[in-house]
Amino acid sequence: MATSRTLSGPCQGWPAESAFIREVLDRIGDKWTMLVISTLVNGPLRYSDLQASIPGISQRMLTVTLKSLERDGLVTRTAFPEVPPRVVYELTDLGRSLSDAVLTMATWAATHHEEVARNREVHDVTGVGRKGA
User: Fold this and answer.
1) Which of 61, 63, 65, 114 is the most exposed place for a label (fewest CB within 10 A)?
2) Is the previous residue joined to 84 through a cis bond, with omega within 30 degrees of 0?
């Protein structure tokens, strides 16, 4: 006798949109996206200030991330007609609506990073959690 399964998850109620929901989750779950959004929470920043505030991000990755966030309507880019040119990035209302979730994730990572590191070390040494181990 076949049993029916109960499906759950964020895409369960919207099967037609599930591919797009996964795409949005990929965007907002990206480490650079999370860091850019959490950095812009306190207000608009120039490109160079934004890059200096995010250790490890390359110029290329910052540019790609900002263009994607701008396309998705999470960030605005304002260019001022000055010499030298000045460009400022700022969260939109939609971006600000995401900032609480991003800050919660960042806080969790900061709080638990040592425990995660210990778990990885134990796992790598003992193989606990691997099939057949």
Assistant:
1) 114
2) yes
